[in-house]
Amino acid sequence: MKKLSGLTTSLILAFSILSACDSPSALIAERKDQPTLQIRANFQAASSSLQAATLTILEVDKLPEALKNASLLEIVFDTTKARIPITRNSDGTLTFPYRSSRPISGEGELPVLIVGDRRFSYSILLETGPELELATPAIEVQPAMNITQGTRLRLKANFKDPSKIPDYDFFWSAATASAGPWQSISGNSDTISWDSAKIGNYFIHLEMRHKKNQSTSSYTSPTALVRVLDSDHLALTEPTSGVILEGEKIKLKANLPELENLPNLRYLWSYSVSTQASFSPIVEEGAQITWEPPRAGSYFLRLQVLSDQGNSTYTSSKALVQVSPADSVIETLPASGSLIRGESVNLSAKLVDSPELSYTWFYGFSPQASFTPIPGSGKNISWTPNLTGDFYLRLRTFNTKTNQSVSYTSSKSLVSVRDSDAVFTTDPSPASLLKGSSVNISLNDSSSENIIWSYASTSQGPFLPIPATGKKILWTPPASGSFYLRAEAPRADGSLATFVSANSLVTVSDRSDAIQTEPQLANLQLGQAVTLRSSIQVANGSYAWSYATNASGPFTPLPSLESQALSTVTWYPTQSGSYYIKLDISDPGSKSAVSFISEQPLVQILEKQPFFSLDPSSGRIKTTEHVTIKAQFDTRGRAFNYGWAYGKSAAGPFTPMGGSALPEIFWNLSNKPAGSYYLRFTATPPGSDRTLTYISSTPLLFVSSSDASAPEFGISSLK
User: Fold this and answer.
1) Tens digits of per-residue pLDDT, 627-639?
2) What CATH number should be reported for the domain whose range is 612-717?
3) CB burial class (10 A; 0-12, 13-18, 19+) of residue 634?
4) How far, in Å, CA of 662 to CA of 239, rounded?
5) What is the pLDDT of residue 491?
6) Average pLDDT of the residues in 25-31
7) Is the domain defined by 325-417 classed in CATH 2.60.40.10?
8) For the chain, N or C: smaller number of CB within 10 Å?
9) Average pLDDT, the chain
10) What's the confidence (pLDDT) of residue 106?
11) Contact (Cβ atoms closer than 8 angstroms) between residue 478 and residue 593
């Protein structure tokens, strides 16, 4: 009955087409009592929207002789009055383009009217349906009907007689309309997989081509078999809005109903800031996971589902997770967070009170940098930053009931710490000093009296301690340079408030007049004295003098005759040479010490005339003879007691020769020991324990025995 219905329909359509032709009378004359012919034709779908589908009539031998012999063949298949030329192919088949709003029936039947030489016509029923008979449903789709964009489909041709399947190649295509255009689907077997790439309702077209005779038949689904939905609903979120604070976690649940009944599924999640950027994997796997996004921002999701049937990948076209900055969770007082180093800021967590929560605070120089713990814990704490800079804050809460922690990190710096000169006062101001001068420094607005001070040549340090402590101190900088100040004031809670100047507040210039000599740039003979004087006078200060043959030392304490370390001393150099002078001043008031070293030798001791002179001048005597020894010693009007001694070595030991009130001695020992001797001269002020000692650099006294043969004073006679 179905076939008869198709014939009846084709006849009715043929008559309606005929009535629409340009010359119906000519066609009617040749059309009487013609039966409708049933002939097979191959349908070739259009490869693009710019091309037309084609139909090829294979069974040309079944056509009436009049049509076979006609020089012009045209076809009419709708009521548009259009006659479409038919092309004769080299193999004898006939082909014509198929552009029509009237689709081929679900059984593959198309009634047409073929016109020959524009004089006669025949009603033809073209059969394009499959030679392989399809069952119901003709095409099986898994998962069925509604799927999410990205789901891999399984399309299977449902034949009544599967035994003929190996004789055919199969070509699949899909379109959003029954008339096309058709997009080919990869695969040429009766069962294929298809990744639905675009959203829409899809008709499925199947072309079956016999491998041997190349005969082609096709089937087009009468209705859309596949409905592809957008992938923006690939996951359900908790909270449902998908909006969380940075540091919080969000629950993700796969929302793919078409896959729920499939076994052995594996779910792999990933995220990205855009669909064009690379996606980063989420560690946890499964249909339902908990995820903590790495930072504030908008995140697209991608879900890859692995199954026995293949892999399906879903990517959201919009951001499904919105992570807001955690700035609103952390509150600072002052609200600006702007501090001078040493000041405190109060930090508060704007979270619902919970007895199960513990709070830990951190700071860092950027959201990506490492964070350093802030001392103290609790929902509200006070923090005194020891460093300058702009600080990001992080709050980490831990729930003792669920054993879960949440971290909130600010997206911008909430605390800004700067150094300031205004917290310090100097006197004089500005504190531009000469080396050796002192400055009064104080810390403003501090209630503590036990303030620890230090200084440095840069704001980054290293900082060296200043000996004095207190809110206001007197400091004598030990060296020249420009110095930053740092004050550490203890608080009641035991913490230190640290204040550092933003600029150098104390500048110390070097001075060349700290050490003065009399005579100036003293060029002296051995035995003469020089007066050394400090131009810097410190009340109750202590002065230490020393000398060296070069500016780098080592320096030897100066053997002055004064019993106390005075700002002015008299020095008798006991050896010839050029000497640098060093002065160390200790100030008990500021508990500071400062040192000065002369830039050049200030004292030069020459020995143009011998310090020791003897009579006889040769210094050669016999054991029974006498000798007079004199020292070129300048008393500068001061009284001394003198001592004399001789020894066989400059290092001693020395044997006393006697004492004198003048810097000379008459040695009249009756039986002197024979030998070659160094001389030693000492000068001691009366009542003093400080003695000046001069020792000859070579032997000056030569004593020989009375019976020695000539030469009387030969070197060989010396012991």
Assistant:
1) 999 999 999 888 9
2) 2.60.40.10
3) middle
4) 110
5) 76
6) 39
7) yes
8) N
9) 85
10) 61
11) yes
Give the architecture-level CATH label for domain 515-606: Sandwich (2.60)
DSSP-assigned beta bridge partners for residue 251: 238, 290
Q: Provide the pLDDT confidence category of residue 129 given band limits of 50, 70 and 90.
A: low
Residue among 514, 511, 566, 568 nearest 543 (CA): 566
User: String of b and e for 76-99 (b: at least 16 CB within 10 Å)?
Assistant: bbbeeeebbebeeeeeeebbbbbe
Q: At which residue do the structure tokens 């009249």 appear?
A: 668
Closest CA to 124 of 251, 222, 213, 11: 11
The torsion angles phi and psi of 165, rounded to 5 degrees, stand at -60, -40
> For strand 120-127 and strand 37-44, is the pairing parallel, antiparallel, or unpaired?
parallel
Helix, coil or strand: residue 547? strand
> Among the listed ranges 39-53, 79-93, 602-616, 683-697, which one has the minimum average pLDDT value?
39-53
Domain residue ranges of the chain, discontinuous segments joined by +: 2-127, 134-229, 231-323, 325-417, 426-509, 515-606, 612-717
Pairing between β-strand 522-525 and β-strand 603-606 as defined by DSSP bridges: parallel
> Rounded mean pLDDT of 240-262?
86
Task: Report CA 340 to chain centroid distance, whole Å.
Answer: 27
Strands (E) in 246-342, as ranges, are 250-254, 266-272, 280-281, 288-291, 297-307, 310-315, 321-324, 330-333, 338-340
Fold for the domain defined by 426-509: Immunoglobulin-like (2.60.40)
Highest averaged pLDDT of the listed ranges 261-265, 516-520, 691-695: 691-695
For residue range 489-502, list pLDDT tens digits in order.
887 767 778 889 98
Length of the chain: 719
Percent of the chain with pLDDT over 90: 37
Residue 436: exposure state from Cβ atoms within 10 A (0-12, 13-18, ≥19):
buried
Phi, psi of 647 (to 5 degrees): -160, 155
Indicate the DSSP class of residue 341.
B
